[in-house]
Each structure stands twice: as C-alpha cells, then as structure tokens.
Design brief:
The chain has six helices and two strands; from the N terminus they run αααββααα. The protein is elongated. A two-stranded antiparallel ribbon has the order 1-2. It is mainly α. The chain has a domain at 28-70.
C-alpha cells in the first residue's frame, strides 16, 4: 500500500533563526566572522573601500555554502563525495567487456573435468568407467 506525501511536507525544513535552517544560520555566522576579519584585518593595508569590497566577496562564499544543495546533497556531502572520489578511489577505471556465455561455458567445462577426475579416483582397480565399457562392447 502506497501513501502519497506532498512535496511541501516531504521537504519541510524547520526555521531556527529568522526562517533559516540551523545549517544556514551557522554558515551565515561564519560568513559574518569572515567579513569582519577581512574588513578589520585588511583596512590598514589596502584602504577602507577596497577592504569593504573584498570582505563582501570573501563573505559571499561561506554564505552561499549554507544555501547550496545539489541533487538533495548539501555542500558538506558533495565535498566529502568529491574528496572520496579524487583521493580514495583514484586511478584508471578500465571497462572490460565480459561474455557471460563464455564465462559460464568455461566454468561448466572445468566442472566436468573436475568431476571426471574425482570419479576416476574413487573407482577401484578392477572397475571400468562407462566410456571404457562402451568401447569394449
């Protein structure tokens, strides 16, 4: 039995601070800290106006990370998948076609050969195999 659920209910996110989710709120505070540090840290070196523009650009990245979602994955999950792909599973992926019929045929031949070897082992000295009996008759 299947029970349909509306998309609005399925994708419900609870707002923590001013309608933002907890993740968006945390990344917003990170953006605020980055902007403040950039503004106050760079102001003596590059001037007030240039530092203000640069702090806006630097704060935009963490703020965007809080809202980023791609195929249902947030930024942390995307970054984790990318790192796993790049470093843990690195190397060449070579596609080798496998003929299933050939594989099964070779396995069946090996199984028959193994069965005949074990049958010959278990036969006594005076006993003849079915193939030998047919030749003599």
């Amino acid at each position: 039995m299947e029970c349909p659920v509306n998309k609005e209910i399925r994708n419900y996110r609870e707002g923590v601070f001013m309608g933002l989710s907890m993740r968006q709120t945390i990344w917003g505070f990170v953006a605020l800290v980055v902007a403040g540090a950039a503004n106050f840290g760079l102001r003596p070196f590059i001037g007030k106006e240039t530092a203000s523009v640069l702090c806006i650009l630097l704060a935009a990245l963490p703020a965007a990370v809080g809202f980023m979602s791609y195929h249902g994955l947030n930024f942390e999950q995307i970054a984790r998948a990318w790192l796993r792909t790049m470093f843990r599973h690195n190397g060449w992926y070579v596609y080798r076609a496998v003929c299933l019929y050939d594989t099964l045929h070779c396995a069946a031949i090996k199984e028959r050969q193994r069965a005949t070897k074990t049958r010959k082992k278990h036969m006594g000295k005076g006993q003849k195999s079915n193939a030998q009996k047919k030749k003599t008759v």
